[in-house]
Design a protein that fits this description.
339 residues, alpha+beta, Beta-lactamase, 2 domains, three-stranded antiparallel β-sheet, 12 strands
Length: 339
Amino acid sequence: DLASVTKILGPLPLLMKLVEDGQLDLDEPFSKYWPAWQNKKGKNELTLREILSHQGGLTPYIVFLNKVMKDEKLKSRYIRGMPGKQFQKQAYDGIWVRNTFENKIFREINRSEVDSIKEYKYSGLAFLLFPELIEKVTGNSYTYLLRRDFTFPLNIPSLGYLPAVKGFPNSIIPTEFDSLYRKDVVQGWVHDENASLFGGISGNAGLFGKATDLLRVMQMYQNYGYLDGRRYLKEETVKEFTGIQYPNNKNRRGLGFDKPLLDNAQKELKDAYPAPSASVESFGHSGFTGTFVWADPKYQLVFIFLSNRVYPSRDHRQLYELNIRTSLHQVFYDYLDKL
């Protein structure tokens, strides 16, 4: 379960392609493409650039699980135990979500508050909108485009959504014992509750894959859109998206991609993110379940760390407290220094 690493593997490459094809403009108001924001104060002028670099002041997170539960029970208005005409989105074994529930999610996001002060604040909300946006702009299915343009030509068929219905469950480790929503050890279904309520297909989480799958995508990015004789994205597109957008606002982020802390090279290992030796050109993303990917074009180094820190509970935080990912990342830079 790749958690938030989904953001740079699923919706982001498709958004990059739409930008370079002229179907989206980073500096036009996002409301041009998402009309529900046109009359929303604070949202109507936000650009895609601001949103992707977490500079737009959007609400960080909304717990949509609260909308389908009351007194620790699932509301039959939104959730059923069997599929039906109006309940065709499977979220788990024995959990089917009302087809139109995603519209409720969109409305909540449309109504959510925006900070009046533009400063760096991480928000994953827009990534819940991006698959729908991509479908509206292109007229094609989000998952179809992802397969057609990226996972199929990259030869990584195991990177995808809903592995539990594709015969992969025994290849997937369990994530967490969910005592509230699914009342089970979650395995083969997306851990993130918001993505689950989309039927497992979302832009914020939901992709499953192997380290070798991620290597292919990150190598393509590291080569600025090129891999094995094929160009997937223009070089200038990848450089734009992987570059820091608002350094003067104390914002390290690229467009969708995470970047090193602005003064990372001067930090001690315990305070750095990622490894202090990572170059300013490097980029990647982390995920709630314990996933981490990072590419460094300067050193031609791709680092992929797939773990499951939330088993059996998300209260387990030693991955962070022991600084395992940053420390291990630095080991590879130290090795390169000796060559």
